[in-house]
């Protein structure tokens, strides 16, 4: 929702987070806040890196609007790594030169491998962002090391082909995450909450495994973190949209049950698939998890969250846009929810169903401006030809749907 040029929060953020604060949720965790504006996950990300992308007063206003009902709000800080779209940068960075593929969309450039000096700069950027949001009044931070973003890329042997201290064995692949957490903790102090989001696995052959994830979780418990969030998958394998073993709730609950003893009393937040009050309550009561994470239903209709917490609703309704080509389905689903977040932020009426207008927004404003070409950014060449070809293809798809 941020303007791609200023990369700062605005009225859309203030309205949306105020609305979510009123739901009764105890903890809000923001979407990706990037530590480096050159390598964003999307053009409209908030960036907190230096005086160029840092308006302290706007950040303070965001923190205030997100906590109006007495809840906490933590900032999720991240680096997209190779999952930086060509609309932002045609040459992203990563642990190695392994290009990301987002289903049928040619939206990621081939990354260049980071040098050791650049890795050290990334550690410093995580520290700067954490200190800044602490200064602005946010209650804590979450370091994003899941969903295929940079720290997650270093953990996975599939994307990390390095032969130095940051690659090779699992201990080396964990090194960057360890350095980031250690440096951030030293900077913000022992009393400021730090969470880490990590995959149970990335579900790719030769990638990050459950056994490796368990080892990372054990490491994190030794680094004085305050919360570990479990999720899974990445842009190439979106298991947090398409369930692992058919329709069910709490996609990663089996993994959490396996590693519960390793958590060493660090609270576990589980996100992915929760929709019924019954399963949420059971997961808390039987000790599987300490906190329940909900994402897309907040974007569908915040009022439903309030009703669920107040006992007026047993099941969170879910809207899934129809997409005849499966390779586009998760992107369409995600972008419909992004569109609805914009409507929440703009105090507009929320959509109860997917309309022709929804699809037009998804495939133009959503896919093209987000992934392929954004007129507000001047990084790299603007891929107008690809955009026109893509629009012609989308016209064909919409004719199939309608």
Notable traits:
402 residues, alpha/beta, two-stranded parallel sheet, 11 strands
In short:
The chain is an alpha/beta fold and 402 residues long. The chain is built from 14 helices and eleven strands. The protein has helices spanning 11-21, 56-65, 116-135, 150-155, 170-173, 175-188, 210-221, 253-259, 277-285, 296-300, 302-309, 326-345, 356-372, 384-401, and strands at residues 27-29, 33-34, 46-47, 72-78, 93-94, 112-113, 140-145, 194-199, 227-231, 268-271, 291-293.
Straight-line N-to-C gap:
29 Å
Number of helices: 14
Please give the number of β-strands: 11
Unreliable runs, pLDDT <50, ≥5 residues? 240-247
The topology string of helices and strands comes to: HEEEHEEEHEHHHEHEHEHEHHHHH
* Fraction of residues in β-strands: 5-15%
What's the helical proportion of residues? Answer: 40-55%
Q: Give the overall average pLDDT.
A: 88
Q: How would you classify the helix and strand content by structural class?
A: alpha/beta
Shape descriptor reads globular
Radius of gyration: 20 Å
Give a quick account of the main beta sheet: strands, pairing sense, barrel closure: 9 strands, parallel
